[in-house]
Amino acid sequence: MRPSPPQPAGARHPNARLPRIVPVNRPAITQEGIARMLETGKLSADVDLEKLLINDKSFTTRKMKVHPYDARLVPAVMTNLSPYNKMNGFVLDVADIKKVPGKLNLKDLKEWESAERDHSDVPYTPDFSLRSRSSQTQLASPKREDTRTYAELLDVYSMHEFIIRKGATLRSTPEFASFKRRYAASWGNVELVIRRLEEFLKSYGIELAYVDGRKVVALATFQIDDLLSREEMLQCFANREELEPLTSSVTQQFASGVDGRQLAARKIQATWRMYSQRIAYRHLLVGTQAAIAIQRRWALYRSHSLTRKTIKTQKEARLLSWKRTMEEFTKSWPKIKEGRRTIVHLPSLSYPRFHAKHVPFYFALQMGQLTRVADLRDPLVDVIMIAPFRPEPEVLEYYFTLLEDSGVVNPRGRLTLLVPEDAKRLPSALSLTRLLLLSSRLMKCLSSLCKNRPAYVVPGVIGAEELSLAIELNIPMLSADPTIAQAISSKTGTQRLLELAELPKPVGIYGLRDRRELLSALASLMTEHKEVNRWLVKLETESCSRGHAYFDVNRIRVLKSSDESSKTYDGVLAELMEYAGKRARLVHPNSYPDWEAYAAMFDVVGGCVEAVPNRIRTSLTANLFIEPTGVVSLHSVVEPMLAPAFTVMGCRFPFQNFVPYAAVRDAALCVGKAAFRRRVMGYISVDFVLQEAGDGVAAELYVVDVDLCLTNNAAAHLFACLVTGSVYDVETGSCANSNKNESLAYAYSGIIHSPFLSAVRHRTFFSLCRSRGLSFDRYRRIGLVFHMVDVLLCGCLGVLSVGTTRSHVTRAMKEFQNLLNLELPKQSEHSAESNFVYFSSAIHQLIRSVSISKEM
Question: Record's Pfam families (predicted)?
Fold first, then answer.
């Protein structure tokens, strides 16, 4: 027969029988219990106990009782309700358990139990299960009748002290044998402790030690062998007093211990390795920290360089865009000046920070050109005025009333006053332009107001901030490029401009860099031009005579001596080098208290020295306007009111006829054309000095200074023409009212500032002025117009006396001075922050000039 092919795994043969279900015979569980049946052999070792336990419900499931968390913190108390209370009557005799031999199989154990039952009167119950004894009383423990052996007594009452000799435990002694029998249950941990003790004694070379076994057991119960300290191991010795001195020193291990020399060598090697690794780690740490510092610095430098490069690129792009805007503004100027336009007035005093901190009332003085609202005279002009603070409503109402009475159409709707939002939080020495740049909200507002309409900025004193503002807003400026303006507005730049105009100027030397060059130039000029009595020194970047000092020739002893041989350059220079501080006179001691401070600033910014004319007949100022197309127009020629210390307080109009008006006009226009060739446009002011010559010689007109901004005197002239309805005649140099055909005369005080002005009551003072007739007559267009910076609390005030004759305006100014003298205390005249003395001196000069004019 052929064998059948093999079937695949798991396939069923077709003739195979189905498996039968064989019932499993479970043995009956007796009262002995499963554990007893397994011990006696009634149940085989491989029997399946799961079904027995489940079917007989030996193990049941029920819902676990969840105790609250607070119950865990309450200590358990044994009460009658506790199930463990049933065990209260049982006594466990350890001695009976120890009688059971250690190594017996199941058969021998049964025989031993039978023998024990035969010798015992108490019946033996093999059931170890706990039965309910609720109805039984507590059973008494059975009494022992046999005597205990010596070994048992030794195990119980022995001290269990054993000996460790030469690092080895004497294990053959009865004490150690009893100790081992007594603590056989935990002998593993005890043995580890004993070994640690042996190693400890061997390491110190101790030959003999007595060990307290009970302390060893206590230590083995609660401690791990690897964490044993020296103190814990010493507590295990009965002769601790002898061992403690031997183990107190570490050198004992190396001197007496086993392999002490090797231990010492390893210790030295380990210490050296530790030391060398620490040194290496310190070097590595220093190198790592240095590398980290270098990397951080390099990353910071790269980021800084990249940021600067990005800013420079963006600034160059914006500068290029602004220059294109300026070119378009220049081309479109004829159309712009005839159409609707917006003028942004920014009367900022952008002095350098080291100069601005010496200017008294610097923050309030930047509000001193509210007279620029005269541009509203043109109905096609909207004015946006940037101010460092918002004036009181009554001050604005005063200006609006003057504008409305002057015929200005809708001045309240065409004038917008903007104030930097963070002006009070920023330092007071910041310029108005810098405050504007630091006010993001105002920048956005200004940008939106000037968007999609012809607009341009008319700045004040031009500094570096004006260029940043123009680039940021991309608005054209009606002035020179700020870089060019800063170069020309310096004293040396002004002289170069006058050289380009080919006009006469005082003798001097310009472009001096330090005090040594200054003294050398003074010595040279004094010896070459002995006819000059006074030499004026000017700081390069100062303004308003704050950087002026002068040397009188009659104070130089070398030049006063009769010895002509000593009147040389070297002699004058030696005296100036030694006594310059005593020979110099400072114009503003509050800015520079002594010569050393002045000379230190001269070393920083430089300056010039020029001659002061011996006999000054008069001073004049021509106010020009240079259009972007190059057309130069003369707006006014006024006579400044000078204080004794070369300080300009205000001005008066018309000027005295000591010089022909045509000569002044032609010289001013010549300076304006030269300025336009230097790409200067906007408002400029040219200062002239008329020097009186000898008999039969005509007076000489010198140009002494140029201001590239709209000055207070120029703005006051425009405001005076506005409130009186007058028009300036360029041909004759006079102003006349077209309706009344009356000539205009006025005197402007400039801004008077004093800390004592804030103590004057605002309403009371102006009520007193009205009672004395010191007010403006809106119908006759004459009287006193107040140049309000804010209420008198700010400490600044100005007046504009308007009339038809010089005597009338001079009388009004004198009455105002007398009233102000009554209101201000006497000590205000000598305050370092007050210019009231200069104002009084200017009024005195004004009265004197009027008297001289009447005599002429």
Answer: ATP-grasp_IQCH
